[in-house]
Amino acid sequence: MEEIETCPAQRLLKMLSGKWKAEIFRLAVESPLRFNSLLRQIQGSNKQSLATALKELEEEGLLEKTTIKLKPLHIEYNLTEKGQALIPVFQQLEGLS
Amino acid sequence: MEEIETCPAQRLLKMLSGKWKAEIFRLAVESPLRFNSLLRQIQGSNKQSLATALKELEEEGLLEKTTIKLKPLHIEYNLTEKGQALIPVFQQLEGLS
DNA sequence: TTAGGTAGTCAAAAAAATTAGACTTATTGC
DNA sequence: GCAATAAGTCTAATTTTTTTGACTACCTAA
């Protein structure tokens, strides 16, 4: 389905729409994310939804996935520069709450 | 279904989620809104969706509905103070696009 | 070698959001 | 009076999103 983009802020807004993305983003600001921890941290969520959200955030360029090859060999998600650029927007939003 | 609010920005984000709300908001910044004009301006939308979105934006306190009792007696939607407070967030968002 | 953790995928079901189309009520202009 | 415009509502269908549960594959520790 074709989506026409009229409002420039709309794309960004859409990036963070979805039931879990804002929460994931908030946690990513605090520290790198790992899949199973996230699943435990966000009660009410589930594997599939988190997997989808993480994939989308990655595709949108807000998060990046890294394989940590040391010690217990695992995967981390970190905010990209683009992702960090969104932090002030969140802060402003929180200021209005 | 119970929704627990962990992230304070999430509520605001949710306010503007949904297919048409960001666009409606953007138009509301420019001038007061009227139902049928909106329906014509936003191509691809429909009565029901706009009615729902307007009602929600109103409930969230971002828009207010006024009956204009003059001339051709009609209804207008305007940004509330709370709605206006969101304008800078939008601008910041646009700056990042 | 067997159990447990990590990081998922897949298909199907359930729930939520969006749309279509018929219908309503009130006010105008002619 | 008659037709048009404005601002919707209602029900049902369709589409999209989210959830569930089973299943993979790879490591590591005992």
UniProtKB/TrEMBL annotation, chains A, B:
Transcription listed as a keyword: yes
Pfam families reported for this sequence: HxlR
Top-level taxonomic group: Bacteria
Classification via SUPFAM superfamilies: Winged helix' DNA-binding domain (SSF46785)
All copies of domain HTH hxlR-type, residue ranges: 7-97
InterPro entries: HTH_HxlR, WH-like_DNA-bd_sf, WH_DNA-bd_sf
Record's keyword terms, sorted: DNA-binding, Transcription, Transcription regulation
Name this polypeptide is given: HTH hxlR-type domain-containing protein
Species of provenance: Flavobacterium chungbukense
Organism ancestry: Bacteria, Pseudomonadati, Bacteroidota, Flavobacteriia, Flavobacteriales
